[in-house]
């Protein structure tokens, strides 16, 4: 935002100038114009700075709701007006115009007031055009033609251009009587400074009013900005009608012009001292009648300070002698009185021109400054009102967005808690469903295995390939069946949960951010259970027994006992019950690859060894056989023994007769089913857990995606809130800055009021 200048650096600059102005000496009225010009210039300088500062602040505000184009254009217009006025202000000065008939001494009077011979003077028609004398800061003066201000002429050309009596101006451009030749005379010379020129007094000398009746052109071209008119008359003659007509025209174009009448060449009265008072009284009567009754530019009380009887020649030569320019000066009787009269004229002239110039030049500037400050304050009030309304709207928006942000966070925390509960419910549902489906598939193993129709080959290589193909077939069937079962119910349940999650999160997000969730959801792949029973691995320890073994034979019974004791299927028991003993040998084909299998094999060997040892003991001990046979014979008799032996032999013969290739295949499938069912029951819990893990992982992935999206939205919302706070801080800074500028405008109004009180009002304490 726009940086304000340090407090007090320029705010009281105009007021300080006013205080200094009050210290101006009362006997230096010309200083009042310069002081007033400086004070008002300081006010305009501060106003320019304030407008520039305001324009810079407006330039940094991009929001048209705060600063409309109308306000910007108005400030630019004020800036341009200030520039125009300040450019004009620098050219403002006090202007006095001298009029009179030819050879009345207008140029001599001006030279006397300047304490130097600046204008050509002499008997007859000496001034051929308007000559304007004004000060310059250069060490050497120069001339400028009014229609060619870019070209500077040497001061020596003045006697040729402006002097009607010069014989050297024949080759120069013709100067009409209404033409203007500007004479820029140094304000500071070797003999000292020129007080009139130093204080911005511009003096205009004119040709004789008796040379041309075209007064209106003269007035319009050269006199409308004059503050004082000085009529230089000839004491040896009366006021002519031409002189009266000129000032009557002036009074019609200007409201109450300030007119002084200098009755010059009053030194001629020294030759007729007896009639001097009556002549003076006659002149006074006519002059008073002209100023009061005809022109109506002053009243009876003021007219005495507007009419003076002087000798410009005596005053000029006396002042030139005092400066050492000449050695002898012209003096007639009563020259001291006339010198005092001339000084009295100068004093009243300076007071009048200073007061008049301040009013004519600065009153309009003061009023215009009031108007511009009023427009500036109105502009500021409009912008401040808009800024306050915008801040209120921004604060309401911030409060609403903060509420939405907090609600979103709270709602998502509630959603997260509900998600955890739903996840546990889904885990239980998956557990029940998958467990039931898995055990149903175990019960359907007979039907699945019966669908395997590959030809049975009883050879060792054919048997191995048959078992491998059977395992692959069963695995494919089980996996596809389980996937179909899970896809039916669980997939629908999971999809509904995910859709509910999406819908819930969509509701808790504000509308501008919902599209972000749509992008995440649109490209998500549908969930599908990955089920692998891996039957080949489960039947890796399957050992088929396709040798004929009587069901009630000793070997078969021992295997069943071992399977019962170990909790394994009979097909997991090796056909050679003594195989574990080979662990003590280094037969690579029978190495046990698992510690658990080794432990089970050792237990099988111990049981087999115990049973065989018992049977051998009974078989080898005749005494034992006789004892056992005697006990049985006595208990059941020989007929029962014979019938039992016959039945046992019959069963053996029946089983032996049915033992063929088809029986071997059915026996293999039955053994395979029994073995696989037992193994599947063992891995049922692991399979269920695996499915639970998949379902929970799927839900977690969806939840993580939603959480990441919501987290991004939260960060974006937080960034938006921070940005809104920054904007509000910026608006607050603008309001403070504009308030400061408005306060400066109030100080400027006070300075303008003080300026008007000090310089423009008739009751001003410093008014002359």
Automatic annotation (TrEMBL):
What are the record's GO terms for cellular component?
A: mitochondrial outer membrane
Q: Identify the residues that the record assigns to the Dynamin-type G domain, covering every copy.
A: 90-346
What's a Gene Ontology MF term here? GTP binding
Q: Which reaction does it catalyse?
A: GTP + H2O = GDP + phosphate + H(+)
The record lists the membrane-crossing segments as 611-631, 637-654
Task: Print the keywords alphabetically.
Answer: Coiled coil, GTP-binding, Hydrolase, Membrane, Mitochondrion, Mitochondrion outer membrane, Nucleotide-binding, Transmembrane, Transmembrane helix
An annotated GO BP: mitochondrial fusion
The source's domain of life comes to: Eukaryota
The protein's topology relative to the membrane is: Multi-pass membrane protein
**What PANTHER family does its record include?**
TRANSMEMBRANE GTPASE FZO1, TRANSMEMBRANE GTPASE MARF-RELATED
Q: What is this protein called?
A: Dynamin-type G domain-containing protein
- Provide the species name: Caenorhabditis angaria
């Amino acid at each position: 935002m726009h940086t304000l200048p340090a407090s007090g650096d320029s705010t009281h600059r105009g007021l300080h100038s006013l205080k200094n102005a009050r210290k101006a000496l009362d006997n230096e009225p010309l200083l009042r114009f310069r002081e007033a010009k400086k004070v008002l210039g300081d006010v305009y300088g501060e106003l320019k700075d304030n407008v520039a500062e305001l324009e810079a602040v407006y330039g940094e505000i991009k929001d048209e709701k705060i600063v409309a184009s109308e306000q910007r254009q108005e400030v630019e217009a004020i800036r341009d007006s200030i520039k125009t006025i300040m450019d004009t202000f620098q050219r403002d000065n006090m202007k006095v115009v001298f009029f009179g008939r030819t050879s009345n001494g207008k140029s001599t009077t001006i030279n006397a007031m300047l304490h130097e011979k600046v204008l050509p003077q002499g008997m007859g028609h000496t001034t051929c055009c308007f000559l304007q004398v004004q000060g310059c800061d250069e060490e050497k003066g120069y001339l400028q033609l009014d229609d060619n201000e870019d070209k500077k002429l040497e001061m020596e050309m003045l006697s040729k251009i402006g002097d009607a009596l010069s014989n050297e101006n024949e080759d120069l451009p013709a100067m009409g009587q209404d033409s203007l030749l500007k004479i820029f005379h140094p304000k500071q010379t070797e003999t000292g400074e020129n007080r009139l020129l130093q204080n911005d007094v511009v003096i205009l000398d004119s040709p004789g009013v008796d040379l041309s009746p075209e007064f209106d052109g003269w007035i319009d071209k050269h006199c409308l900005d004059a503050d004082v008119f000085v009529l230089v008359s000839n004491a040896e003659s009366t006021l002519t009608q031409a002189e009266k007509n000129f000032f009557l025209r002036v009074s019609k174009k200007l409201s109450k012009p300030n007119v002084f009448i200098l009755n010059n060449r009053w030194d001629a009265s020294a030759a007729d001292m007896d009639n001097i008072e009556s002549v003076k009284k006659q002149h006074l009567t006519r002059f008073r009648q002209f100023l009061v009754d005809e022109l109506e530019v002053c009243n009876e009380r003021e007219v005495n300070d507007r009419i003076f009887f002087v000798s410009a020649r005596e005053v000029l030569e006396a002042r030139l002698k005092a400066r050492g320019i000449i050695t002898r000066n012209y003096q007639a009787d009563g020259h001291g009185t006339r010198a005092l009269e001339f000084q009295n004229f100068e004093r009243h002239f300076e007071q009048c021109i200073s007061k008049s110039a301040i009013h004519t030049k600065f009153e309009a500037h003061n009023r215009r400054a009031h108007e511009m400050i009023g427009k500036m304050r109105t502009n500021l009030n409009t912008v401040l009102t808009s800024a306050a309304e915008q801040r209120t709207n921004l604060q309401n928006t911030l409060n609403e967005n903060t509420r939405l942000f907090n609600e979103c966070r709270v709602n998502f925390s509630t959603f997260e808690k509900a998600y955890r509960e739903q996840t546990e419910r889904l885990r239980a549902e998956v557990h029940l469903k998958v467990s039931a489906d898995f055990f149903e598939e175990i019960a359907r193993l007979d039907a699945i295995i019966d669908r395997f129709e590959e030809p049975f080959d009883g050879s060792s290589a054919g048997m191995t390939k048959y078992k491998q193909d059977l395992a692959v077939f069963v695995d494919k069937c089980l996996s596809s069946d389980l996937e179909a079962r899970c896809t039916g119910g669980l997939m629908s349940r999971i999809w509904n949960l995910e859709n509910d999650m999406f819908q819930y999160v969509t509701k808790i997000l504000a509308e501008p951010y919902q599209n972000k969730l749509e992008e995440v959801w649109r490209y998500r792949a549908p969930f599908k259970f990955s089920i692998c029973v891996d039957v080949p691995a489960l039947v890796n320890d399957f050992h088929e027994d396709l040798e004929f073994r009587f069901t009630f034979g000793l070997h078969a019974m021992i295997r069943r006992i071992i399977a019962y004791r170990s909790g394994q299927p009979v097909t997991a028991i090796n056909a050679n019950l003594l195989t574990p003993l080979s662990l003590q040998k280094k037969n690579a084909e029978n190495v046990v690859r698992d510690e658990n299998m080794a432990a089970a094999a050792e237990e099988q060997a111990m049981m087999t060894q115990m049973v065989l040892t018992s049977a051998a003991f009974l078989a080898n001990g005749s005494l034992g056989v006789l004892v056992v046979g005697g006990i049985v014979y006595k208990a059941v008799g020989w007929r029962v023994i014979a019938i039992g032996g016959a039945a046992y032999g019959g069963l053996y013969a029946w089983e032996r007769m049915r033992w063929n290739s088809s029986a071997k295949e059915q026996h293999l499938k039955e053994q395979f089913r029994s073995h696989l069912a037992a193994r599947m029951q063992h891995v049922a819990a692991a399979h269920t857990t695996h499915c639970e893990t998949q379902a929970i992982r799927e839900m977690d992935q969806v939840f993580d995606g939603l959480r990441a999206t919501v987290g991004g939205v939260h960060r974006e919302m937080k960034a938006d809130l921070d940005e809104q706070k920054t904007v509000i801080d910026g608006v607050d800074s603008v309001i403070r800055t504009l308030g400061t500028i408005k306060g400066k405008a109030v100080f400027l109004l006070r300075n303008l009021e003080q300026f008007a009180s000090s310089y423009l009002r008739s009751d001003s304490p410093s008014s002359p």
